[in-house]
Amino acid sequence: MKDLLKSGIYASGTVNTNRKYLPTNIKNVKLADNGSSKCFQCIEEPNLTCTVWKDKKEIFLLSNGAKNEITTVKRRIGGNVSYVTCPKVIADYNMYMGGVDLADQYRKYYDISRKSRKWWIYMFWYLLHTTVNNAYIIYSTTNFPSEKKSKTPLDFRMSLIEAILKEKRIVETGPQTIVKNKSHKRIKIDGRKKDAYVAFH
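^ PiggyBac transposable element-derived protein domain-containing protein, sequence as received from the core. Prediction below:
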């Protein structure tokens, strides 16, 4: 969070209480009632805060640019809808994390990632998968598709594969020109067991 703030990037994220550098007084926080909360501020870096909120259990959230503001959120308790107090930074986090959860859900449907010791290989498959998912979302929300019924994610992927293979076949069926390289000639040199290649200019 500190490094992100130095780069001008504001961020918020949940944190587990077993993290190495999390202060002990934060790790041991126990809140009694649902909706109760506490906010801790770093002395060295005042913009760094840790907010603890009691929902079904304690939720710990780090932020490098959030204000200590309170709002309310809906909760269903015993079949009835009620409003409980909640730190605004946690309410905002839950609202915007919905898109991330949906993206993870799409990726798990047809996961093409492969384990690798090289990080860039994982990143390649991750970005490819994300690109396909984004393309499907654009397809589903645009007015251009003429089909009365939108394709499922699997149908969309199959159509994408067929389109790529069709384009590849068109490219391969074009005229091919074979150019023979006459600048090298294989000759036998006395005293050598193997032939050698000699270049001509």
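Residues 162 and 179 are 32 Å apart (CA to CA).
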